[in-house]
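Sanity check

After download, print the first record. It should look like this:
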Amino acid sequence: MDFQHQYILEKDRALLRPLELADYELLISFAMNEPEIWKYSLVQAGGAAGLKNYIQLAIEGRNAQKEYPFIVFDKKTNQFAGSTRFYDIQLTNKCLQLGYTWYGKDFQGTGLNKQCKYLLLDFALIP
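Expected structure tokens:
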């Protein structure tokens, strides 16, 4: 995995692209209006400061080659829906984990997550 590469994963329902600092504006409504999203999150992203910290930590993880965070776009509704990532990336052991996934309440239970996980797993299996 090249951590400097801008990987875009896409299928009929979902588009995942690398999370950027500017995505704060696209995700702030979730941080401000849906506090229940963060109830069980390891990194709290509620409120403006929380979301800025969340995105900054995710990008730092990518720069350290330990994580690769994505913003999730729902092509069915034409809206940004949340975020997901590869984390605990161990290139020498050829393993990683999927997680840090969250979606706004309107996107939960819609099948979007299933397609996102398919995209992530399919990408991870590429030699």
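If your output differs, re-run the checksum step. Summary of this record's structure: The mean pLDDT is 94.
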